[in-house]
Amino acid sequence: MVETSHSGMSDAEQSRFMTALTTEHFVLQTAASTTVSEASARASLYLMTLSSSLVAIGFTSGTDAFAPLVSTVIPLIVVLGIFAIVRLVDTGVENLAMQIRIVQIRSFYRTLSSDAPSYFPGNTKHEADDVQTSNDARRSPSTGRARRAWMGTKGLFTMASMIAVPNSIVAGAGVTLGVMRISSRPVGFVSGAIVAVAALATFYWYQNLRYQRLRPASEAGTRGS
Hints:
- The chain is mostly helical.
- The protein is 76% helix and 0% strand.
- The chain has one domain (6-224).
- Mean pLDDT is 83; it is low at 1-5, 137-147 and 220-225.
């Protein structure tokens, strides 16, 4: 954490340090806001593409253009969804990394005076959860190996999850329609369900892996501060 003994600094050094620290705080807040804006834009783009494509498919239902349109649009939506999901996970990880650094700076602000804690409150519930998860990911005393805790239910409520769920269902629906053209309806439903579940499970594994890779980096930065 950013805990520095400023009693050994001269007035000029303290002034320069506080200027740099407040500038870094402002830059981190701006960058964190940018990741949220980008995530919102990407999610909106995907959902708009999905809704307009479903409307187009609905208009062609029962016509000769239905099969060619579905075989073209569904792969396009799925690929666009994969690109959006990967970037949404990236922005989520970047935002969390910046929030952790902001928490470290705020913890230093609380040491500036005896009244500072009342103006810079301690950890919120979400910050406490992040600290607990970080502690759980540290080396186990019994094995000496790093333990990686899963995100749990928190992984269900990210921006990337909001896109991964419909995208997995679209992929499953596409497989169902394709299999039903060469096999029976039950086989198509089972195949589509398997693909949807597998896609969603792969996403949650990937998202958890990306967030857990952030833990060692944040802990290294903490030890080096």
